[in-house]
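All the exercises in this workshop are built on plain-text protein records. The record below serves as our worked example for the rest of this section.
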Amino acid sequence: MASLETKFAGLTLKNPLVAGSSGLTNSLNKIKDLEKAGVGAVVLKSLFEEQIESHSEKLSLSSDYPEAIDYINTYVKMNHVGNYLDLIRSAKAACNIPIIASINCYKLSQWTEFAKNIEAAGADAIELNIFLLNAGEFPDNYPEEFHQNVVRELKKTIHIPIIVKMGKTISNLPGLVKKLKALGTNGVVLFNRFYQPDIDIDKEEIVSGPVFSNPSDFNDTLRWTAIVSGKVPEFDIACSHGVHSWEDAIKGILAGASAIQLCSMLYQKGPGIVGDVLISMEKWMKQHRYKNLSEFKGKLNYTNIASPALYERVQFMKYFSNFKQ
C-alpha cells in the first residue's frame, strides 16, 4: 500500500492534506470533524490584530472615560487572545494531528507577543498570515523587508516551526523565499488569498467579490511552486489557492510541494471529500508504481524538467495556436 506520509516545516504529517485557516477551523468540534475526515494537519483560523482593535474601538465609543477605555481595550484583547489560546490547548488535548496556529498583525510587537503566547499554549507550529499589498504608499522593497523583519524577530522569540503564507504580489518570490529560508523559516505556503473587491454598478459602491477560489487559480500556484521548489531546494512548500481536486494535489507534489492546503474545496464539498481525495491519490500512486510521495515529489519542478522555460512562458501565442476558428 502506498504511503502518503510527508514532512512539512519540521512536522510529520500522515498525509499532505492540510485544512487551511478559515471558519472551518475555528472551533474544537470542527477540528475534530476534519481530523476524523482524514486531514494530516489543521491550521487554525487566524488571530487578527486588526479585528481585535476594531472590536475594542467599537466598545470604546460607548465610554467617555480614559480609564474605562483602557480597561475595555485590555479586556477585549485578553478575551480574544485567551479564547484563541484555549482553542489551541483543547485541540492539542483532543486531536492527534499537528495543530498549526495562524496570526495576522501589522505591528511587529504584536507578532512577537502573540507568537510567544501561542507557543506556550502548545501549538505545533505557527503560520504567519501576512496580508501585505503595496499600493504605492511604501518603498518598492517594503513588502520583502517586512516579511524578513517579522521572521527575524520571531526567531529570537519562539522555537516552534515558522511558516510564512505568501501573497502573489511579491516581485521576486524565489529571492524572498531564499532569504526567509536563510533566516530560519521552516516552510512557506503559496498563496494567500486576499479579499476580493468588486463593484456594484447599480448601487455604485464597492462590494465583496467571490469568496471562494476557482480551479483556474491553481495554474499560477502550480507555476510558482515549481519555480520556487527548483530554485530553493530542500525547503518545504505547501500549495494553496485554487486546489479543487485530487488531481491538483498530485500536480502540486509533482511540482515540488510537501503539503497541500484545502479551503474552498472543503467549504463547497464538505470534510467528507478528504477521504475521496486520499483514495484517489493512493490509486494514482499504485498505477504509477510509487510507494511514497518522495519518489515523485518535485519530479516536474523548475530544475528537474528539460525545458524550465515552460514555467516562465507568459505569452499566449502557442496557447491560442491550438484553437481553430
Q: What stands out?
A: The mean pLDDT is 85. The two ends are 48 Å apart (CA to CA).
